[in-house]
Amino acid sequence: MPNLNSKSKVALMINMIAPARIAVYSGLAERFNLLILHEGLESNRDTWHDLDGKLPNAAVKRAWGWQIRKTERSGNGEVFNYRYIHVTPGFVWHLLRFRPDAVITNEMGFRTVIALTYGTLFRRPVWVWWGGTPHTERNIGFVRRLVRHVVSGWARRWISYGRSSTEYLLRLGVPPDRILQTQNAVDEFHFSDVAEPKFNIQPGPVLLFVGQLISRKGIDLALRAVATVQQEGRQVSLLLVGSGPEQQALQDLSKGLKLKNVHFFPSQEPKEMPSVYRSGDVLVFPTLEDVWGLVANEALLSGVPVLCSKYAGCAEELFSAESIFDPANAGEFVAKLRLALSGQLPKPDRSRLKTTREIVNGIVCAIEDSTRGPVRPQTAEQAKT
Questions:
Q1: Under 8 Å between Cβ of 85 and 68
Q2: pLDDT tens per residue across span 134-154
Q3: Residues 20 and 116 reside in one and the same domain
Q4: 285-339 pLDDT, tens per residue?
Q5: Are 32 and 176 within one domain?
Q6: Dihedral sign of CA atoms 299, 303, 305, 311 in order
Q7: Helix or strand (DSSP H, E) at 91
Q8: How far is Cα of residue 233 from the mean position of the Cα atoms in its chain?
Q9: Do 358 and 343 have their domain in common?
C-alpha cells in the first residue's frame, strides 16, 4: 500500500498526448506522482508540437513499440482514411521500474491487457478509461470483440467518457457500481478570452466544419446539404478547417455540386482554435462515427451554436433534440440547416459541460479510494448520470 502521507504513484498509459487532454493531465499531475506513458504521435497529427513540454509536473516517457498504419481505400483505390494500431511492449519495462500504486489505461487493447496483468500480479488497482459507444463498436471484428469480452470481465474499475460510453459498458455486463462516469473535455480556459476571427468569410451566415478530412466525418453529406439550401436561394458560406486524405475528393465534389462560397483551410495550431471557431456562425458536425467529438465542446465554449450528428457520443449529453440530426438522412439534414441559417438553433449552453476541475476531482477521489481499499460502490443512477 502507498504511503498516505505522500503522493500516490500513478501511471497513465495512452496512445498519444492530445492537446485537448493537457489540462486534465496537468490536474492529475498536481495531485499524484504521475508517469505518463505514451506511444508517440501518429503521422497525421502535423499541428501538434512539444506536448511533452506542456506537462512539467509529470514524468513523460515514450514507450518502445510499433505503430501500424492501416490504409483504407475507396472503391476506385483512392486513400480515404488512416487507422493506427499500436503495439507497445515497452510499457512493461516502465511499469516494473516505476511500480505505480495505481494505473489508468486508455481504451481496451494491448496496453490495457499489460496494465491489467501488472495490476493482477502486484495487486494494484487498474482503471480503464473508455470512450467507445454502442454505435462506434457496432461493426468491430471478432478479435476486438473477444478482447472487449476478456477486458470487461477482468477490469474492476472504469472511467467512461459520458452517457453513451457508459451505455456500452453496461451492455458488456460491467456492473454500474464499477463505472465512474465523467465527460471528454477540453481546457475551458483556453477558450475564455475574446478572440478575433481567424478568417473573414463573406457573405454570412458562415457554416463551419472543423476536423480531419476523412470519410467518417460525413463532410460529403454536408456539402450536398449546403448545395441544396443554396439552390433554394439561401445565401450561405461554408468554411472547412482541416486536413486529410479526402481533401481533393471533397474539393472536386464541391465543384461538381457548383457550390458557392466554399473555403478550405488546413488544420490550425491549437492556439489558433479560439479564433477559428469565432470565424463561423454555426458549427456543423456531421460525423458518422465519433466516440465523443471535442469540436462540440470547443464550439460551445466559444459561444457558437452547434448542429450535431446523432452519431457523436456527446450528442444527447450536450445538446437538446433541436440541435441533433441524422446526417445520413438528406431531408433531415437540409431541414436542420434551414433552422440553423434562420437563427433558430438553441443558444450554446455551457452548463452541460463538466469543467476540467470537476473531471480531475472525480478521478482523483476514485483513484485515492481504490489505493486505500475496495471499490467504493455507486448506485446505478450515479453511473448513468
A1: yes
A2: 999 998 889 999 999 999 999
A3: yes
A4: 999 999 999 999 999 999 999 999 999 999 999 999 999 999 999 999 999 999 9
A5: yes
A6: positive
A7: helix 90-98
A8: 36
A9: no
Residues 66 and 124 occupy one common structural domain = yes
> Which residue, 192, 366, 213, is CA-closest to 278?
192
Amino acid 48 reads W
318: left (phi over 0), alpha (psi -120 to 50) or beta: alpha
pLDDT score recorded for residue 88: 78
Spatial neighbors of 50 by CB under 8 A, at least 6 apart, are: none
Judge if 344 and 364 occupy the same domain: no
339-349 residue pLDDT tens: 999 999 999 99
Q: What is the spatial distance between Cα 234 and Cα 227, in angstroms, rounded to a whole number?
A: 10
pLDDT, position 84:
60
4 inside domain: no
- The structure's pTM equals 0.87
Statement to judge: residues 205 and 287 lie in one domain:
yes
Range of the domain at 343: 194-352
> Helix, strand or coil for residue 217?
helix
Number of independent structural domains in the chain: 2
**Euclidean distance between CA atoms 157 and 154, whole angstroms:** 9
CB-neighbour burial class of residue 54 (10 A; exposed 0-12, middle 13-18, buried 19+): middle
Instruction: Report which secondary-structure segment, H or E, holds 241.
Output: strand 237-241
